[in-house]
Amino acid sequence: MDPVTKIALDVGSSSLRVMMGQLDKSSNHLTVQEIDRVAHQPQQVDGQFRWDLERLTTFVSQSLTRLKQEYPTISSVGVDTWGVDYVVVNQHGRPLKPAVSYRDPRGGRGRAELKELVSEPDQYQITGILPQDINTIYQLRADREALQEITQDHDAKALLLPDFFSNLCAAAWAGVPAESLYIDGASRCISSTTGLLQHGNLAWAPALVKATGIPSMILPPVRDELQVAAEVDGLQVIRAGSHDTACAEFALPGESPRCLVSSGSWCVVSITLDKPLISQSAYTLGVTNEAAVGGGFRASLNLTGWWLLQQLGPEIRERFGDLSWGEIAERAAASATDSPVFEVQTEEAQQLISTLPGLLKHLGFAGDQDEDYWQAIRALVVSMAHSHATSLRQLAQLCDFTGAIYLVGGGSHNRLYTETMEQILGTKLTKISAEGSTMGNLLAQYTVAGFDKSAIKVEFI
């Protein structure tokens, strides 16, 4: 019996991976393997932080074209990405302007302008999304003049990244890249990260769209998850969760409420609830309410994560050789155990520790011995664990949550990090898989195909 084969395109802010799932229908055993991968990062171009869209689109097109030749029975594909960023395309799906990263400072300018038109507490009550510089709504406000100009000459749409890459997958499978716009609409989970979606329904908030100053027709209609977005030459393109952390949450067993720590470049601590948490206490704590794949909301705290260490990688390897992240983690864990704990969530602290010498100086290490470096790296990991565990404890108290805590993402591989969190929380963390987003993406696709996700046993090979 041939396996039911599906593809998950897992687009992270440092790598894009093509993952293949093959389900044995007789045993419900799902094997998952990485088929292709490309590293990427935003670059400074003409004064902006931009994603290398040409590199990524070329990679996806070539990868899907090759997969069609090698695995013609692939039945569907789903895409998950990080939130907030978008691409403006014409009626053929071709980008009309550079894809600018959430790390670009223009979001802060847009936020300052927009709060003069709609107060931030009012924005929060409408959308349930915490105002942050990175939010799409502020990017759009900052880009409004360019978008107004584009729509004068083009039938343009602002596609959030999962929908952009879904369209690219459909075009590549059809063998006519960027010749048609196959994807009609914006996926609900990723749309909920924008700060423009009314919580509880599938509609953009008119008052907020007006405040951005963008042409309203540039926003596609919002579509729910767990649906077929397009079908091309035998391949279904599935709305499989769209947002990476929403996909990771969908991979968890059981029903709501449930708690997830998705520990990657960013750390998202979330508890899934039936209704958004939009009280004054939630707003003060910094809770943002993003859509869950199966319905409801993920009351979340978006925290700075492993990019704090990732940015130091080149300097660490220049000094100590070409170490893997696992080797770096072990060397740090083996250094002195009495690590100082310091603030890692403020912009001021992040600037101070953005280089290896800066980290050493911030902690008072001389840097004349190798051990100083490893103690400093250990202190950074321990401080992240303290920050994430403390935030989780505050969120759990607000939600009156006492259940199991699930851990996914690259952070789950770091023994020092997980053990420190467990010590602070006073409970064990249940590790689902470092590949939570991929697992949830694939499980969503199999759910749409009529399979019971709770019966599927997943193995990564």
Automatic annotation (TrEMBL):
GO biological process, one term: carbohydrate metabolic process
Matching InterPro entries: ATPase_NBD, FGGY_C, FGGY_Carb_Kinase, FGGY_N
Gene3D superfamilies in alphabetical order: 3.30.420.40
Top-rank lineage group of the source organism: Bacteria
Alphabetically ordered keywords of this record: Kinase, Transferase
GO molecular function terms listed in the Swiss-Prot or TrEMBL record: kinase activity
Boundaries of every Carbohydrate kinase FGGY C-terminal domain copy: 260-445
Location of the Carbohydrate kinase FGGY N-terminal domain: 7-232
PANTHER family: SUGAR KINASE
Family as reported in the entry's similarity comment: Belongs to the FGGY kinase family.
Protein's name according to its UniProt entry: Rhamnulokinase
Species in which this protein is naturally found: Boudabousia marimammalium
